[in-house]
Amino acid sequence: MTWNSQRYQWSSGDEVLYSFWRLDGSLGNVHPARVVSDDGDELLCWVLPDTPVRTTTSPDGRHPRELPLAERFSGPRVPALSTWRGTSTLRLVHESRWSSVWWFFKPSGEFRNWYVNLEIPRGRDEYGVRRVDGVLDVEVMADGSWSWKDEDELDDALAAGRFDHAELAKLRAEGEEMISLAKDGAFPFDGTYCDARPDPSWSVPKLPAHLLS
């Protein structure tokens, strides 16, 4: 698949799609979001509670997390409608970085923790940003403590061709760099945006119907 490198830019309040693709060109999860700011390279956006999202399941309706590891990253998938539940997330995604940073908030609006979602960047299209999920992630708590997430899934993801060893090395290096920033209390782990709130006038973004067919 040829990835789109054309430049797109959005304004505050616009709806965008935060889309996760696979390297074989198939579409995975899609999270509609509202733009806070965007300069064409760095996008800051909210994914709000109760937002309809596209997910994929096995043909018998099982979510990947319900499948044994040997099947989690392989086999046929079908699109399914789900909902972003429980908490809002503010997301910072840079065009060329191999990660995005998510601020998680409690239902009360209080900051909860950061989540470094390791990703392979794949540009933008007219609808939003395109990323490939890197499986491996880093969770950073409000006190600066951190931990790797989902390391147990890497061998099966590699075997299924979700990425190769060189790409995994780059994803891990990105995680190490973000851990170093967390240890130093440097941006984005310096308290910036921890008091952020979505615009109360915003409605929940829509999920285009064609993404479920």
UniProtKB/TrEMBL annotation:
This protein's UniProt keywords: Hydrolase
GO molecular function: hydrolase activity
Domain (DUF402) ranges: 63-185
Name of the featured protein: DUF402 domain-containing protein
UniProt lineage: Bacteria, Bacillati, Actinomycetota, Actinomycetes, Pseudonocardiales
